[in-house]
Design goal:
heterodimer, A: 125 residues, mainly beta, 7-stranded mixed sheet, 4-stranded antiparallel sheet, 11 strands, B: 110 residues, 0% helix
């Protein structure tokens, strides 16, 4: 059974860097079938996709984050991480890591997140 | 503001059917597969539909979905109080090269 667990500081000061780690058990992040994603959710609001990492380490990010986000991985520890620079109060949210499936059939892309961590709350203050 | 548009809320009585719409554009729903997520308060989202209309094995067949053009619809029949949750549509946006979600719809079972 695949499980994901987020960890990291619950409180970050404005202008500093938010750093979170997702530890994966029951699967290898080197598994080329899946990709590894981050999603966040401010209190009382909807889901916001942050980015994903797949295959050889290639990444995609939400353009609205204006290049502040970086997703990396540590295959030896079976973990992947999120760094979000220059945070403000608007970055306060529950952060989820997730295992996704991404691919293409003809000209159509499929992408969904089938396994999620429980989420971790990060407050910027 | 979300890339995909959903109604903020829908409601129906137990046993009835409800539909939730999700509207996008040719760069997302119009040319890519759609997924739907169910989220209870304080918990992580859970995929209930993927690839437009496929259900994970553990999701009851009361949940179904369809897509037409740049819109998608989630339908839940035989509503139960346990279906009360927030529902989100999601897909890939080819122009943004990014995943996108709808703003979410709160389902109330009266």
């Amino acid at each position: 059974q695949v499980q994901l667990q987020e960890s990291g500081p619950g409180l970050v000061k404005p202008s500093q860097t938010l750093s979170l780690t997702c530890t994966v058990s029951g699967d290898s992040i080197s598994n080329s079938i899946y990709d590894w994603s981050w999603v966040r959710q401010p209190a009382g609001k909807g889901l916001e996709w942050i980015g994903r990492m797949y295959l050889s380490g290639t990444t995609n990010y939400n353009p609205s984050l204006k290049s502040r986000a970086t997703i990396s991985r540590d295959t030896s520890r079976n973990q992947f991480s999120l760094r979000l620079r220059s945070v403000t109060a608007a970055d306060t949210a529950v952060y989820f890591c997730a295992r996704g499936i991404y691919g293409r059939i003809d000209y159509f892309y499929y992408y969904y997140m089938g396994v999620w961590g429980k989420g971790t709350t990060v407050t910027v203050s | 503001q979300s890339v995909l548009t959903q109604p903020p809320s829908v409601s129906a009585a137990p046993g009835q059917k409800v539909t939730i719409s999700c509207s996008g554009s040719s760069s997302n729903i119009g040319n890519n597969f759609v997924s739907w997520y169910q989220q209870f308060p304080g918990t992580a989202p859970k995929v209930v539909i993927y690839d437009n209309d496929k259900r994970p094995s553990e999701i009851p067949d009361r949940f179904s979905a369809s897509k037409s053009g740049t819109s998608a619809t989630l339908a839940i029949t035989g509503l139960q109080t346990g279906d009360e949750a927030d529902y989100y549509c999601g897909t890939w946006d080819t122009n943004l090269s990014a995943g996108v979600f709808g703003g979410g719809t709160k389902l109330t079972v009266l």
